[in-house]
Design a protein that fits this description.
2 strands, rod-shaped
Length: 142
């Protein structure tokens, strides 16, 4: 959506409706950010667990806890990593559920206040204006 169309759309709404819409979008962005961070953290835990799975469980290793390196046995570290991974998965599911709920709320708000029809009309017009590529014009670059 173009900036001018967005501004025109917002003129038709009251200040309270605009604030509520922006609040919902901001809330969605914050939850999405946290969800992405959790997913990245899960990937890191999985990488570490895969890297240390074939190592002797009695071997000593070093783990950073609160900015301090602590010597532990690999077995203890694996257990705590698995527990952390389970917690991250639960938190990720909770944030994913919350994110989907806010997306539904945002969509419902947009439909109620007629906020998105211009974008849908524009995309349909753009699709109609795009010429269909023929096989004669397509080539292989070497």
């Amino acid at each position: 959506m173009l900036q001018s169309e967005y501004q025109e759309m917002m003129k038709n709404l009251t200040d309270q409706q605009v604030m509520q819409y922006n609040k919902i979008k901001q809330n969605h962005a914050e939850i999405s950010k946290v969800y992405i961070e959790i997913e990245n953290e899960k990937k890191e835990h999985i990488l570490v667990l895969d890297a240390i799975k074939n190592i002797d469980s009695k071997r000593r290793c070093w783990r950073m806890i609160g900015g301090v390196l602590v010597e532990r046995q690999l077995d203890d570290v694996q257990k705590s990593l698995k527990e952390n991974l389970e917690l991250l998965e639960k938190n990720g599911q909770n944030y994913n559920t919350a994110m989907k709920q806010i997306e539904k709320e945002l969509t419902q708000y947009e439909l109620t206040h007629n906020l998105r029809p211009q974008q849908n009309q524009q995309s349909q017009q753009q699709q109609q204006q795009q010429p269909v590529a023929s096989s004669k014009t397509q080539g292989v670059l070497t």
